[in-house]
From TrEMBL:
Keywords for this protein: Aminotransferase, Transferase
InterPro entries in the record: PyrdxlP-dep_Trfase, PyrdxlP-dep_Trfase_major, PyrdxlP-dep_Trfase_small
Alphabetized PANTHER family for the sequence: CYSTEINE DESULFURASE, PYRIDOXAL PHOSPHATE (PLP)-DEPENDENT ASPARTATE AMINOTRANSFERASE SUPERFAMILY
Molecular function GO labels: transaminase activity
Name of this protein: Aminotransferase class V-fold PLP-dependent enzyme
Organism: Pseudonocardia xishanensis
Presence of the UniProt keyword Transferase in the record: yes
Record keyword Lyase present: no
Length: 335
């Protein structure tokens, strides 16, 4: 067991794989277990989950710097991005980063309708000649950060940001972006199956997956027509995966109350210490990609959990990571 930022974690030594799957605090895991026990014994009721969905929505809003009425609930990132892609006018030019995560780029690439999607080097993306720019704030492959200030200066372009590899360790204030999407199961430490999208009120989207949960009166709209959807971003909601939101309400609620600059300093400080041990420059990111020969195999042999990516290994440093984890990884890759 480890203690970090006021929470306990049952995470093993050498776990540097949060960019794939985050390990929940005990409080969140216990809440999910209790909800599952109620399901198992027939005690739980569907209406019991309204509160946790609301709490998780509000916490995500706080973490990305918007009001909760701008946040829609989904199950994963790509369907939420798909709403923006489907609303992109025919003939539009879309720019994405080279090697961008597929959930960001694919929904635009399959639109056809004369929409062109161009891959641009990340450092040049804010200057791209495009009607839409879609990009992860932190690149999944190697942890590079996009220049948010430069993107914010764009006045004639729709900007969609994916914070899946950023929210939870990087302080964010993204109320200026047209759409901000994020999944729950990395640095937000919730069970996979919940995602959110913050949208600007003037971004016109069609709720292609319209359902009873998105209605103004959800429990009074389970049958019959016409659909009267919520006037806020809740009108874009997908019906939530209940038990995922139980964990999300606990984890995100806790994260939203932390000093996010101290969280960033902890995660990035460990990543930069690891970089320094390998003779790499500091990068200001909690994700490190290394191409040391046989890196993935050497890390695994040393008991370090990492991910094979891009011909090397990806390591990621989280709230519960320690200097001992860094030393173990360096020992595996040194010499």
């Amino acid at each position: 067991m480890r203690e970090a930022f006021g929470q306990s974690f049952d995470v093993g030594d050498g776990y540097l794989n949060t960019a794939s799957v985050g390990v929940p605090p005990r409080q969140a895991a216990d809440a999910v277990s209790a909800a599952l026990q109620e399901w198992r014994t027939g005690v739980g009721r569907a209406t019991d989950f309204d509160g946790v969905v609301t709490r998780a929505r509000a916490a995500f809003a706080e973490l990305v710097g918007v009001s909760a009425d701008r946040v829609a609930v989904g199950g994963s990132v790509s369907p939420l991005v798909g709403l923006v892609a489907a609303a992109t006018p025919a003939g539009s030019r879309v720019a994405v980063a080279e090697g961008e995560f597929a959930s960001v780029s694919f929904p635009f690439a399959v639109q056809q309708r004369g929409i062109t999607v161009t891959e641009v080097p990340l450092e040049r993306l804010p200057e791209a000649d495009a009607d839409v720019i879609a990009v992860s704030v932190v690149q999944s492959l190697d942890g590079r950060l996009v220049d948010l200030d430069a993107l914010r200066a764009r006045r004639d372009t729709t900007v969609l940001l994916d914070v899946t590899q950023a929210a939870g360790w990087l302080p964010l204030s993204l109320d200026w972006a047209d759409a901000v999407v994020g999944a729950c199961y990395k640095w937000l430490f919730a069970p996979r199956g919940a995602a959110w999208m913050a949208v600007r009120p003037d971004l016109e989207l069609v709720p292609h997956a319209a359902n009873w949960y998105a209605a103004e009166d959800a429990w009074g709209s389970t049958s019959g027509l016409p659909p009267v959807l919520a006037a806020t971003a809740r009108g874009l909601d997908a019906s939530p995966a209940w038990y995922c939101h139980v964990g999300a309400a606990e984890s995100l609620g806790w994260l939203a109350e932390l000093d996010r600059e101290k969280v960033r300093e902890h995660c990035v400080g460990l990543a930069d210490r690891f970089r320094a041990g390998l003779g790499l420059e500091q990068a200001g990111s909690a994700i490190v990609h290394v191409t040391v020969p046989d890196a993935a195999a050497r890390l695994a042999e040393a008991g370090v959990a990492a991910t094979t990516r891009g011909g090397g290994a990806r390591l990621s440093f989280a709230l519960y990571s320690t200097e001992e984890d860094v030393d173990r990884a360096l020992g595996a890759l040194s010499g």
